[in-house]
Amino acid sequence: MSATENNQAKDDNDSGMAAKDPAKRRRALLIVTLFFVVLGIAWLLLWLFVFSKREKTDNAYVGGNQVTISAQVPGTVVAILADDTQLVEAGQVLVRLDSTDGDVRLRQASSALAQAVRQVRQQTDSATGADAQVAARRVDLKKAQADLNRRLPLIAAQAESPEIVQHLRDGVEQAQAALDAAVAQANAARAAVEGTEIEQNPAVQQARANYRAAWVAAQRNAIYAPVRGYVAQRSVQLGNSVQPGQQLMTVVPLHDLWIDANFKENQLRKIRIGQPAEVVADVYGSGVKYHGKVVGLGAGTGSVFSLLPAQNATGNWIKVVQRVPVRIAIDNKDLDQHPLRIGLSTETTVDITDAEGPVLATAPASQPVAETNVYEQMASKADAEADRIVADNLGRKSN
After folding, report:
1. What is the distance, to the nearest Å, from the Cα of residue 227 to the centroid of all Cα atoms in its chain?
2. Nearest 5 degrees, angle CA 234-CA 339-CA 350?
3. Which helix (H) or strand (E) segment is 276 a member of?
């Protein structure tokens, strides 16, 4: 018999002895049982301290602002200065329209403002002249009254003829009438300018407002980006005749993004505002994790806000588990390192260990959700140009 056959026979004998030994069988069974018990306890502890403290969903997508760029004045497109996928800065010109009509209206408004300032200056000078005329008429009246008073004693002594005294009385009445007319003219002249400086005169303010509107309209032939972001959905073409409100392109800021995580209704029991969250985007895989926090829960389920809401009160009804969007803000530092695009799929996990926070917002927002100063700068430039025109026509240099 060979050595191999001897070893095989020995192993068969050992196996037979082990199978026939009840103690070894019980020990093996005990080891297997203990293994599964330990595995079960480990799973229970893992569920109690880890899985039960988290809510997870893969029905979650990246959200962000989509800023629609549209025309504010009618015109013809003569230049397109940004295209899809390109980065644009706030205040950068994206599209230019033909400026001919706007320039004409701006020149007309500029001339009207200059004319209004000059007319008010003339009215102010006329009011000053009218006041001088009142003073002169008062002097004339005083002189006529003095002449009459000197002649009245002479008529009593029959040293003056009654005709001369009557002429003097007529002269006093004429002087009084001239004074009254001068006062009325002065009042009329002052009514147009009294109480305000030339710059604050209503006629000047009206012309200034018209100029400001024309200046802003002329500037709106250049369509600016209100925010920093990336161009998408460009539909405008050269030569297009555009109207106010017509969409030309979209600018998408890829900062301050959020996640709209659609949790099932039975997952919302312990989700609260302020809870930390962890996000994994499919585009980068599990190796990249984004950190964020819950900032709010939707006011209704997705089906309620759908184009055709379900009519559950009609016909046969099948219960469908609803989902509610939970908004999760992402840390911008993570976005700087690994940029995301709106609409990307993610897997979101919310830590519900601390379930003491509010379910709904308790106070209105104290800060703007988004803002831009691009248009404020435009208005301030319009005011500066109007100030220059007013100053030039007042005969003094503008600052």
Report:
1. 10
2. 120
3. strand 276-281
User: Measured between alpha carbons, how far is residue 79 from residues 94, 284, 306 in Å?
Assistant: 8, 38, 39
| CA distance linking residue 312 with residue 192, whole number of Å | 70
Domain ranges of the chain: 101-217+378-393, 258-351
Distances from the Cα of 13 to the Cα of 19, 21, 24, 25, angstroms = 10, 12, 15, 16
Q: What Rg, from alpha-carbon coordinates, does the chain have?
A: 45
Query: What is the fold of 258-351?
Result: Elongation Factor Tu (Ef-tu); domain 3 (2.40.30)
Tens of pLDDT, residue by residue, the chain (399 residues): 455 555 555 555 555 544 457 777 778 888 888 888 878 877 776 666 655 678 899 999 999 999 999 999 999 999 999 999 999 999 999 999 999 988 999 999 999 988 888 877 776 666 666 566 667 667 766 776 776 676 666 666 555 666 666 666 676 677 777 767 766 666 665 665 565 677 777 888 888 899 998 998 898 899 999 999 999 999 999 999 999 999 999 999 998 899 999 999 989 988 999 999 999 999 999 899 999 999 999 988 888 888 778 777 777 778 888 899 999 999 999 999 999 999 999 999 999 888 888 888 888 888 888 888 888 777 788 888 888 888 888 875 544
Q: What is the CATH number of domain 101-217+378-393?
A: 1.10.287
303, two tokens: 């089906």
The whole-angstrom separation of Cα 109 and Cα 113 is 6
Is the CB of residue 219 less than 8 Å from the CB of residue 378?
A: yes
The two tokens of residue 338 are 């690994």
Burial class (CB in 10 A: 0-12, 13-18, 19+), 329: middle
Note whether 71 and 248 are within 8 A (CB): yes
- Angle, CA of 245, 250 and 253, to the nearest 5°: 130
